[in-house]
Backbone:
């Protein structure tokens, strides 16, 4: 791939471009418009820091690559969405507060009423509503069957009581979409519904969780007799989990994107050069193994991208990508720590150089195998749903 | 040979599907271990009639140009074929036979070629002077080692360095100083002490062609190993689903489930690695990029095939350790092929040397 | 440790020697008496090949180190027994057909009648009775609860029907000791009894199993209405498994002896030198890891030996040693195969040199993690009985 | 120092048991993370009063000869103590303080020593000029790096090469060019630019003593890491036994059980490695054998402590990733100490160089 030539006029239909042209077109715009000081942020950014980028995307009409054009999205094919994401990742663009874009929007588009579509979608596009996602609970992480936050009918309202956890950037959001239990008798994932709730409703308390990065990316959100109008229910009552699950499928390939490991491997190389071990044969063999793992991960990822390109849907085997990617990321981070000498103990980067940050990466790599369905759960899925093993 | 193959993606896929189908007729996936067992541990270690049949099907000439009587097909097709043969554990030395035929066809030799393509004569290339190498020194008198299934050879193709070039000689088996050693899979390796007096020169300058063909053989071997892994894993999966212990099917034990998942991931990575390398070659990759693609696939297949075949023994427990059970056949085949045309360590080193670095690789 | 000086007179009480003196005394005798052509046999030897050593030991009175002196044993303390075994392993002595010595003898000494002791023990010491062990069954390997071979009372006999498998060297034996089910109603490991059966009893068929070493070390043994006199029952009826299990404890530490890995590591070094990779830094790092694993295994093994020396009994944590040892052995064997180049495909040793036998070792290492309770079972034991994790 | 300690096996065991008991009073096993948290991320990163208490208990002088006012105890005692401190995550720089005191005591210095032994003054040795080394170049002006808990130092001990010898200088903190960096565990590393004009020479020829004491510090650090691993693993074990998911205690899932078993094995190996190394030193091992024993233990502890502490995060899932939960404290402590006094890679190389080969090792 070569450097982008001079910019042509904006094409009418981005989907009509061939993949390479589309990629270059997107790349050019990102490189010209992304705030350079926000490249490769070491931590997830808060709204106050990333909104400039959110609004730039919104202004360009590129905020919602996956939404249909009629709702203000780019209407990109799955293959083009992947390229779009790859280009964002390649340039080290920060994730925005994107739960409205990635999860809620598609859900409303698929299951919402006309009124919900008209009310909520434009406010996501404008940045007026910033959403957060209330799925996980203290006793229901990978196990939604144990969901306990409940919504009880009371006239034309539901009354919500309970607690959510690992709610990403809840302190930045003014709305939350929730999975709540509406039928206590129902078994397993039945009896769960999907509710939209303004964060300023009385009875909601947000408590940030400081994580090992010493960052408050996640929150606990408490619900104490929170009254939610019934019109804020999306889709059928007691069918919330089915809807939510249907939308997780497409997200899963992103957890397997090799970009994170590719970025980490560059960091490993830079660190090895800094530490003077780059030319050591012991290190080179280890590095070669990691590079080969990365290249094979890219090829493996390519298999799934090709499926999307052919219009196929992804099966449970995409879990394998997530396992590969996250564990490779960790092995690279582990290698960084091991060659860093005493720098492995520093709280910040080496000599203040953000490209030499073994400890930051080591800690950042820890949750990769936990979130998005822990790798233990992913292996269960592979065993049962791919290999057909019992129980 | 380094030029991109013609055809759309769909046409290529169809061509590869066809070759798989035809392979299944000769070497059914894991279906004929009785034949495999009958041929083990006696000379020549394979069935010459089956090798002839492979010739008739055009497999030996699969990579030879059509003008030379070959099929002119791509690495995608060769890898698909090799994978099927691996899954069927076919002991016939198709890859070495194809190596010789490809080199001679590309070098313009036309006299021996027809009989080689037809599988009438098995003529392995005796290029290797030490273990774990892809280099061809071409010493006139150094013993040539590890010649696959040499017990069945009628002729050896002998690369010999003359000045700056590698010439090729054809040396008849009869009267040659050949020592045989049995291999784990029941076949054999030959060690040949060259005697050029008996040999006939058949090509003048084949060094580059040979290097290229050795890389193709390495990639085909990776594909063969992929087939071996897959069938081996399939055996374990069947066992996990049927074998009972402590009143439960053992495949319901989570520790075994997770191990099976990890092996399945290795299969996925190996397939992606082999197929993307074949696609890179068929798209015209040359030089360092070509070598890097081959090395990546061979390094993966070598390590993963040893891992999978030995874990499959473990997943079976005691029965996996009996010779009567088929798991051992796959283990032994992986032992023989994992390091052929370069070990994982060799290919890792070569990959790091040749692979482009940076964002756009 | 230095070479042994000139031989002193045989001491009266070997237990009275200090450990070093005992070790040297044993070493000297082994080196002088062990048939050199049998050192480090690549495969388990049959009776016809190893009986010369059996008789040498018998003649010296050293056949049964663990038996009390009154029964013709050496009466060694556990610590001295370990030294004795270490010295046999160090010199690469072949295991004899030792099931009578190691397993049956102690069982009869502990649980047998006076008549059984008087009849059977001398015949083990003389080599007249060669025993094999019938525990495992096709559907009861690591799971004795599933034992199906049954013994039904018929007058003063039991009638045995069923099948044993993995019976080591059954084709060499003239007696077999059996676990049989005598109570079908009983649960789990209850209802199992211990029977002694001459191999020439009508109805017994022995079928050798060729293993991956292409060797017939193991056999299947079939029982078709085999009549066994009731006097051949050892201990209480239906308590056979308890007795058998009590004797396995002491055996377990041997499965964790570092000697097998130490021998393999020497082979790795020899192979590395032969292949010209000994000086390569990539190889050296790998070798260093394996050597460190071996040295730490030796230290870990030492912890258990010290316990025995202090007269303590070994708990379930000794399973950890077996896991460590067998998996290290395999990793060394794996490394051999990987550096062997095309020699990794040879059926026999390289250039006929028995010290350069990567494929032999690779295959030999496979069952190490299967026999003696598979490593999966061992990990279950550690989790449940050492760490107290639930069922 | 390289002479064997007196005492029977039972006497040694009793002495080691006593030191463990006294440690528990100051640094209860995993019992006081509130104190630990209160000291994090502010200077000096530990409690000077606790360091003084350690001095009063004779810990700083544990390895110093009795004639010099020390306790003259063995590495067995030091490792037991360090292990307890690790289990309690004690942030007080006992090992660096002991390093300085031991070197000065053995070198015959008697002026500073009493206050150092008493813990009144913290005087780390500023020996390190680059990362991941055990060598002491003693350049007069090169910055000395990675000085543990330097924010609390009143004095630095500075090794300086003079001719073929390493002399020791005492450099007061006041006025010294010292830069501080925070560490993951909430403590700090100092970088000191030496200014010998302000320093006073306190020993003439301490190179060998320093090398020996650095090895002892490396082994003590391995023992500290053992304690860290043990408590970290204990946390996970408790969690596995109580946390419910899918209607079951998660410790009943076999995949987690097997992982816990593997971590327990690493604990067993690390303890065996550290204790046998300490015993070897106490039995009088010298030179290469001494270095090999230390390197073996430190290589194991470095790798195993990183493995265990990060696996413990994984076994906890989300909660393990919160700063509020204690699992992270152990992870961070292992990050700081794993490579201190030599990384696993450095010690593996040194082991291979120094360890005797052969049957009787």
Residues:
């Amino acid at each position: 791939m070569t450097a982008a030539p001079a910019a042509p006029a904006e094409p009418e239909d981005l989907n009509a471009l061939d993949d390479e042209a589309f990629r270059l077109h997107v790349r050019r715009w990102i490189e010209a418009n992304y705030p350079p000081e926000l490249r490769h942020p070491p931590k997830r950014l808060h709204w106050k820091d990333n909104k400039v980028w959110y609004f730039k995307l919104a202004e360009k009409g590129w905020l919602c690559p996956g939404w249909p054009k009629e709702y203000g999205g780019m209407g990109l094919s799955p293959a083009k969405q992947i390229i779009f994401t790859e280009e964002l990742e390649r340039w080290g663009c920060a994730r925005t507060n994107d739960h409205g874009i990635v999860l809620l929007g598609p859900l409303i588009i698929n299951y919402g009423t006309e009124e919900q579509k008209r009310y909520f979608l434009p406010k996501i596009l404008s940045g007026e509503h910033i959403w957060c996602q209330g799925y996980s609970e203290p006793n229901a992480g990978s196990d939604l069957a144990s969901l306990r936050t409940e919504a009880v009918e009371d006239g034309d309202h539901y009354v919500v009581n309970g607690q959510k956890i690992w709610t990403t950037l809840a302190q930045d959001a003014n709305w939350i979409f929730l999975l709540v239990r509406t039928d206590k008798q129902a078994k397993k994932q039945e009896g769960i519904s999907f509710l939209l709730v303004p964060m300023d409703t009385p009875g909601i308390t947000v408590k940030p969780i400081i994580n090992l990065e010493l960052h408050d990316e996640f929150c606990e959100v408490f619900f104490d007799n929170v009254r939610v109008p019934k019109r804020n229910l999306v889709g059928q009552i007691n069918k919330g989990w089915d809807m939510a699950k249907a939308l997780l499928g497409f997200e899963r390939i992103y957890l397997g994107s090799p970009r994170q490991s590719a970025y980490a491997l560059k960091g490993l190389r830079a660190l090895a050069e800094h530490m003077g071990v780059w030319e050591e044969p012991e290190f080179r063999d280890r590095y070669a193994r990691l590079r080969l793992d990365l290249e094979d991960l890219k090829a493996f990822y390519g298999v799934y991208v090709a499926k999307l390109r052919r219009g196929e849907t992804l099966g449970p085997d995409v879990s394998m990508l997530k396992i590969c990617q996250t564990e490779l990321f960790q092995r690279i981070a582990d290698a960084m720590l091991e060659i860093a000498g005493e720098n492995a103990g520093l709280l910040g980067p080496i000599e203040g150089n953000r490209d030499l940050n073994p400890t930051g990466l080591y800690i950042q790599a820890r949750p990769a195998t936990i979130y998005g369905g822990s790798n233990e759960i992913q292996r269960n899925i592979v065993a049962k749903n791919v290999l057909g093993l019992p129980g | 040979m380094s030029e991109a193959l013609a055809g759309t993606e769909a046409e290529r896929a169809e061509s590869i599907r066809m070759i798989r189908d035809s392979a299944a007729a000769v070497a059914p996936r894991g279906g004929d271990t009785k034949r495999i067992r009958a041929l083990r541990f006696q000379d020549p270690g394979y069935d010459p009639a089956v090798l002839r049949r492979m010739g008739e099907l055009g497999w030996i000439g699969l990579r030879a140009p059509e003008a030379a009587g070959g099929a002119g097909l791509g690495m995608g097709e060769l890898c698909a074929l090799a994978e099927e043969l691996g899954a069927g554990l076919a002991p016939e030395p198709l890859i070495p036979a194809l190596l010789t035929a490809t080199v001679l066809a590309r070098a313009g030799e036309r006299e021996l070629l027809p009989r080689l393509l037809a599988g009438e004569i098995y003529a392995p290339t005796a290029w290797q002077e030490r273990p774990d190498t892809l280099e061809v020194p071409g010493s006139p008198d150094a013993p040539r080692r590890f010649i696959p299934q040499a017990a069945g050879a009628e002729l050896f193709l002998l690369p010999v360095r003359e000045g700056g070039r590698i010439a090729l000689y054809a040396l008849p088996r009869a009267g040659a100083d050949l020592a045989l050693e049995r291999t784990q899979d029941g076949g054999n390796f030959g060690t040949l002490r060259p005697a050029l007096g008996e040999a006939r020169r058949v090509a003048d300058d084949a060094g580059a062609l040979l290097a290229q063909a050795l890389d193709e053989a390495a990639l085909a071997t990776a594909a063969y190993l992929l087939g071996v892994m897959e069938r081996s894993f399939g055996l374990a999966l069947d066992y996990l689903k049927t074998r009972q212990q402590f009143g439960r099917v053992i495949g319901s034990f989570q520790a075994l489930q997770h191990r099976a998942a990890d092996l399945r991931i290795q299969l996925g990575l190996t397939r992606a690695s082999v197929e993307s390398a074949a696609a890179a070659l068929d798209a015209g990759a040359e030089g360092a990029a070509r070598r890097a693609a081959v090395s990546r696939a061979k390094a993966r297949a070598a390590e993963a095939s040893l891992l999978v075949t030995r874990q499959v023994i473990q997943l079976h427990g005691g029965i996996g350790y009996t010779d009567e059970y088929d798991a051992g056949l796959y283990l032994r085949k992986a032992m023989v092929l994992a390091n052929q045309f370069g070990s994982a360590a060799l290919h890792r080193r070569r990959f790091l040397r040749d692979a482009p670095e940076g964002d756009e690789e």
